[in-house]
Design brief:
Layout lengths: L2 H9 L15 H9 L14 E4 L12 H9 L4 E8 L5 E3 L21 E3 L3 E5 L7 H7 L26 E2 H8 L6 E6 L2 H8 L3 H11 L9 E6 L2 H10 L3 E6 L5 E2 L1 H8 L4 E5 L6 E2 L2 E2 L5 H7 L4 E6 L14 H11 L4 E4 L2 H9 L20 H5 L14 E2 L1 H4 L15 H21 L4
Parallel strand pairs: 1-15, 2-7, 7-8, 8-9, 9-11, 10-16, 11-14, 14-15
Antiparallel strand pairs: 2-3, 3-6, 4-5, 12-13
Helix pairs in contact: 1-2
Length: 437
Amino acid sequence: YDPLAEYLSFIDNGAFSVDGVLTDFPVTPSEAIGCFTNLKKSKTDHGKPLIISHNGASGDYPACTDLAYQKAVDDGADVIDCPVQLTKDGIPICMSSINLMDDTTVAKSQFASQTAVIKDIESVLGVFTFNLTWDDIVKNLRPKISTPFSSFKLDRNPRYRNAGNFMRLSDFLDFTKDKDLSGIMISVEHAAFVAEELGFDMVDSVIKTLDAAGYSNQTAQKVMIQSSNSSVLVKFKQQTKYDLVYMINEEVKDAAPSSLAAIKKFADAVSVEGNSIFPENRHFTTYQTNLVESLQNAGLPVYVYTLMNEFASQPYDFFSDATAQINAYVQGAGVNGVITDFPATARRYKLNTCMHMGNNTPSFMAPARPGDLLQIISKPAQPPAMSPMPLLTGSDVAEPPLPPARTAQAPSLASRMQAHAAIVVTLAMLLACHPLV
């Protein structure tokens, strides 16, 4: 799903070069010929834009596995990430989702009968990391590669669909120590739920694991903690000196002064959805918001998430070219970094020879202007206007402090789920013995 790489295979392969190409999208071969041949791929540069992996190189291997992390390092990521979940026995692990149905083979395992809906987390059936111990997971389940565009029949790397090994946070930290990285990012979500319902303090678990791995004293690699919950970052700020990244997980057009003031109290940077920078309408970009400018003017670097190679993830304005999309965010919107499933694509972009040409930048490397393609469509055929996007306000950011971890005397979620499961099984047995007539 990388058209630029396809063109380079014909013109920059070390063996031969074709004399020309026939294409529906001239911008991509122009990029390839003009800016991406003979790149110095061994060059190390951890400057802007920062390349942050999303679950490792999860476009190539199952998310958060040893293979995905090694590929992200090999592909030139500046920062690799671990989204932390807790197991039944309280072990912090790297797993892209708290719901094991998303990225493991749990649906085909003996644990499939433990499915439940937990509305505090999501409204779909799941078997959750806290339902199983670490041994249950590592001995009985296999990773499963993500397929975000299965409706388009776009399967990622089928040969390695279930390849790789799961990693605990401690394994991840051991792995990263000797790697050429500028830092690591640890994401923490659902901390309030885990404290109230399961009796675990996620913040404390992460800090203790980092301390045990020596990261409390390490300066070579910075530690970034990301969360969409201000309460989580406030607690980390009180107890550590790590860089804190506030994730805005809703689409907004700008940040009100009250929200900027609130974020500045606990965060060092912000991650935002692509649609909050270039809002889309029926897969066309419509305009560029003021969000990046407002955040940066407040002294907050901005990272855009989540970039992918598949054409189905990109607005039409980028002509099915992931490189053109990155260019729009970096050169057009001025983001400080990208969070991506495909670090190799971002790394190649970072090395392109047209990167710092200023006024001499060729026209084919000029960032796409949001809304231009939409205006080419005749008025009757244009999609209806979108409703206005909201501002991020101070009340959107503010949260009460994290609750303390539940005491042992309180009934646990796990015990309640087991009781509910027992009731369901009993009812099923009764119905089997005495069918309704």
